[in-house]
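REQUEST ID: PR-0412
SUBMITTED BY: lab tech R.K.
PRIORITY: routine
TASK: structure prediction, single protein chain
INPUT:
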Amino acid sequence: MQKFPITAVGLAKLEEELKYLRVEERPAIIRAIAEARAHGDLSENAEYHSAREKQSFIEGRIAELESIIPSSEVIDVSKLSGDQVRFGAKVTVVDEETDEEKTYRIVGQYEADMKTNSISLTSPLAKALMGKKVGNSVEVPTPGGSRAYEIVAVAFQ
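STATUS: complete
OUTPUT:
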């Protein structure tokens, strides 16, 4: 079985989502299906079909989480240090063309979230940054052409 790196916070979020789906969403959708069924003819019952579709999504996500969680390998980022970019690093880069500065945290694929600037270690940017140090420049292929970034800070927290 392939192991996937994940932070303790990322694993906790996945476990919380799984618990929520099992305890809250699954029973609620079962009630909604029963209620829609009580309305009669199922062939033209939009509520029933909508509830069944939502149930399918919920059960699929539960199955996905049940396979991800046991195959996760928790990496304690607080015990990491150094100036080289690797999993768990908080990396500040400057776009060499626009001088725009951004900070990203490199995390596992199942906890990546652009809202929090957490990027998957399998993303093109993270792949380009891995193993580099402060002062290094990297070329990242993008749909609009290559972008160059300079690493200005690496931290582990």
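NOTES: The chain has a mean pLDDT of 90.
REVIEWED BY: pending
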